[in-house]
Amino acid sequence: MKIPFAIFDVDHTLINGDSMFLMLFFAISKKVRLIFYTPMIFLKILLCLFKIIDIKNVKESIYAPIKYLNEKQLEEFYDKVLLKKINEKVMSKLNFHKDQGCHILLVSASPEMYLHYFLKNSSIDTIIGTKLKMLDGKCTNKIHGKNCKGIEKVHRIKQYLNENNLEIDFDNSFAYSDSLSDKPMLSLVKNRYKVNKNGLEIEEFI
């Protein structure tokens, strides 16, 4: 079934900031001892900048504290941190497209483990993010499959479409992102918009 979609990136688009680092700081606020992870994280960021290790290795280090947060705390992170970071301009666009009959899809490189709380907002139909491995019923910091970034976002969206017998109405669909790395995802729709890093402007993505 062909339907119109409105697809939104999350970090620096739907929210102001990077949820990955917001989660890290939130976890440290809950368990101060987790601050001892930070030297290793910054070292790995530096090694990644020099292309000694890959981004997956860095992200798994940043995600390490998530192992110590339970479901209640992850929901608190959404309620008390992420909701306060919502970009109201982008959210108004999201609500507008929902009212116009679009299927609303959030697609992010951040973990589904906490992004799924965005589904508490009835305007949002689906979230697609990086999956983390589970061990004995608990979340780990290890990425399951591929980091949901760049072309992987397109693969995951197409998987979702196939599983739900859906097709994007190209001419009547929209996508929003702050990043050039999302160009493959933006190519799925005709109407593409860039959200500036300051979150104050939305302009046509060329």
From TrEMBL:
Keywords: Hydrolase, Magnesium, Metal-binding. InterPro entries: HAD-like_SerB, HAD-like_sf, HAD_hydro_SerB1, HAD_sf. GO terms for molecular function: hydrolase activity; metal ion binding. Pfam families: HAD (PF12710). The keyword Metal-binding applies. PANTHER family: PHOSPHATASE RV3661-RELATED (PTHR43344:SF13), PHOSPHOSERINE PHOSPHATASE (PTHR43344). Belongs to the HAD-like hydrolase superfamily. SerB family. This is HAD-IB family hydrolase.
